[in-house]
Amino acid sequence: MSDKLHRFLLENLNIRGEWVSLNNSWQEIQNSAKYPKAVRHVLGEALAIVSLLAESLKFDGSLTLQIRGTQPVTMLVVQATSEGDIRGIAKWQGEILDNTPFSELFGAGTMVISIENNPKSEARKSKQYQSLVSLEGDSLAACLIEYFAQSEQLETQLWLAVDDKSVAGLMLQSIPTEATANDSLDMNEKNNWNHATILADSLSKDELLSLDVKTLLHRLYHEEDLRLYNAKSLRFKCSCSQTKIDRMIYALGEADANALIQEQGTIDVDCKFCNKHYVLDQVDIARLFSKGFTPQDSIDNSDQPKVH
User: Fold this and answer.
1) Fewer CB within 10 Å, N side or C side of the chain?
2) Looking at domain 242-307, what is its CATH homologous superfamily?
């Protein structure tokens, strides 16, 4: 099964939805580390969520969900681009039991969702938007549902499933109308919302993981006026490259770069997302700081591999 996302519309209920299934990309992302089961589970959920959110928002660039924790999980970051590229990673300390609840994974952590627009986009060029999301909830989905309710005044519900081979997610959102833009749902809208979510609650995790989108939606909403849009392909893609490595080393400065060469013989760079290894020697450093080299783009240190 390929990695893809479908948008759909329950027209008679005034509800929009998205379904995502990640298989190949989930396998590749797991190759970066041997994650404890509890960490793997929340990482998979975060990848489904960021894929769904990226499609629900109209932008040209990347959407990142990042959690900075204390312990045992010190960091989790997932990213999806408007082009369908996804990636993610988590870091942890010590032993983590399989049944460790979400509320204990990140300690006194903070979650931030940010949108970075494509620098080449004409609209809102290079502008970044950030939202702080509370981690007070018994699951990652619960945190996001509460965020949409409080900050966006938008009814949202998420169903997520993760196993060793695949990740799946289903999201429903009420469509704001002029009458309810500044108020809660009216009685008819509440009934429609309750009807749609109760049906989705009947899904088991195994069904969410195994059923294709047409079968799943037919099972849930065959009596509704449903419009299914064409699939969007998703893929694991790391943004690291030799060019980015060159820019990062250039940003260190010639003196520091040469000092590392003198101390270590080479400069070794590991990408934290895809485990790709880069090696620069004295000839490479000379090239970087020659008269003809000029970095073309700014450096984003949060997205760069680690220099050893």
Assistant:
1) C
2) HSP33 redox switch-like (3.90.1280.10)
What ranges make up the beta strands (E) of the chain?
Answer: 4-10, 15-22, 61-68, 73-81, 85-92, 110-117, 128-133, 156-162, 167-174, 226-228, 232-233, 235-236, 267-270, 277-280, 306-307
In contact, 57 and 115? CB cutoff 8 Å: yes
Convert the pLDDT of each residue in 222-236 to its tens digit.
999 999 999 999 999
Tokens representing 171? 């999201």
Cα(66)–Cα(185) distance, rounded to whole angstroms? 31
Domain 4-236 maps to which CATH number in 3.30.2160.10, 3.30.200.40, 3.55.30.10, 3.40.50.720? 3.55.30.10
Q: How far is CA 301 from CA 183, 204, 244, 304, 307, in A?
A: 42, 41, 10, 5, 11
What is the sign of the dihedral through the CA atoms of 65, 68, 73 and 74? positive
Helices (H) and strands (E) counted in the chain, each on its own, are: 10, 15
Q: What is the pLDDT of residue 292?
A: 62
Q: Does position 194 have pLDDT exceeding 80, yes or no?
A: yes
State mean pLDDT over 65-86: 94
β-sheet bridge partners, residue 279 = 268
Confidence band, pLDDT 50/70/90 cuts, at residue 154: confident
pLDDT at 121: 62
Domain ranges of the chain: 4-236, 242-307
Classify residue 56 as exposed, middle or buried by CB count within 10 Å of its CB (0-12, 13-18, 19+). Answer: middle
- Rounded to whole angstroms, the Cα distance separating 285 from 94 reads 38
Q: Residue 298: what pLDDT?
A: 37
State the pLDDT at residue 75.
Answer: 93
* Rounded Cα distance, 28 and 128, in Å: 28
Tell me: pLDDT of 59 over 60.
yes
Indicate if the pLDDT at residue 299 is higher than 50.
Answer: no
DSSP conformational letter for 297: S
